[in-house]
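Usage

Read records sequentially. Each one opens with the input sequence:
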Amino acid sequence: QVQLVESGGGLVQPGGSLRLSCAASGTIFSIDAMGWYRQAPGKQRESVAAISSGGSTRYADSVKGRFTISRDNAKNTVYLQMNSLKPEDTAVYYCNALRGWTATPKYDYWGQGTQVTVSS
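and closes with the structure output:
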C-alpha cells in the first residue's frame, strides 16, 4: 500500500524560500516519475513540477525559474525547493507518482499535503 508523506511547509514572507519533502513507501520509487501538485482554496489541484526516474524535469510556467524539483532514490524522497515565493503560491502542496511522463497522478491516494502560506 502506497504512502506519501509531505512536509516542510509553513508561513513565509514574499520573496522567501521553503524546501518541501515527500517521503514515499509502498511503491518502487526509483522507477516512477514523481510530481508535486498544489491546491489553493476554491481552485482545482494543479501540477507544479515533475521529475522522471532519470532526472529530467519540467515545471508549470508559473513556477519556472523559481522552483526546483529533485529526488533521492536512496531515501525514496522527492523535494521541491521553492524560492522567490509569491502570495499566489499559497496552497496545500502534495506529491504523487506520475503515469508515465504525463501530469496524471498514478495513485488515487493522496497524502495529507503540506500547507504553504506566503504572506507579509
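Summary fields computed downstream for this record:
- DSSP finds no helices and ten strands in the chain.
- The beta strands are 3-7, 10-12, 18-25, 34-39, 46-51, 57-59, 67-72, 77-82, 91-97, 114-118.
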